[in-house]
Design a protein that fits this description.
The chain is α/β, with parallel strands linked by helices. 36% of the residues lie in helices and 25% in strands. A 7-stranded mixed β-sheet has the order 3-2-1-4-5-7-6, with helices on both faces. The protein starts with 20 loop residues before the first helix and ends with a strand.
Length: 272
Amino acid sequence: MTEIKIEHENVFADVDTSGVAPHLVTYLETVAARPEVVELHDRATALLAPRPGERVLEVGCGLGADARELARAVSPGGAVTAVDVSEAMLQAARERHDPTLDVTYEQADVTDLPYDDATFDVIRIERVLQHVPDGERACAEMARVLKPGGRLLALDTDWHSLVADVGDDDLTQRVLAHATGRMIRPRAARHLRRLLAGAGLADVRVVPHAFAYTRLADAAVLLPMFNEEIPQEANFMADADREPWFAAARAADADGTFLAGWTAYVALARKP
């Protein structure tokens, strides 16, 4: 087992000082390759409908894969600015850059964007607002730098929709409550419509996307509380629950009764 030391309650909120950036890079690449995640991204891109010549801001770009896909969509004549608060993530994105694409990678905080008013035609933000304490300010900043008539797409996970069945409801409730309790805004996805409307955006459309897994190995790719390779130091569950939890999950997997699922939401809004 690879040893991982986690010093922060939420490593995605402070990647550069967490000590686990290389592991997060691997995690993000693995998740992005999953067909159900590709399907979600394809649905979101179709909803956003980027067009040639548009200027795009990708917030929380991570490894930059979505920024590069958007750059292809807005070519010719368009350009993408990909921002992240993590320099480690930006370095990983630059290493994966396709030089034929017009993508600029910059460090920026979504609650204090270093751009003029009405700069971008399109803004995309994925799985970022769940890590931002002040979601209202983040959305207000994105609305500020969006051009009139521009579109903002936000994609996030509703962690309080997470359900699991390993045959012990009390144990499951404790483990899921512990895991979601470590997150800054676990309900961010269900608040997207209110956040975007509150930022002055209009025509807010929200589309759900459900995930369901009946194999433990598949759930473990996306959900750390099902991954035994992640050590207890990561604090995804109480010490006393770890052994019984994984024993129950393995047993449910073996007898064909395991289930885990949750809902993500995609919200699209327009600036009047």
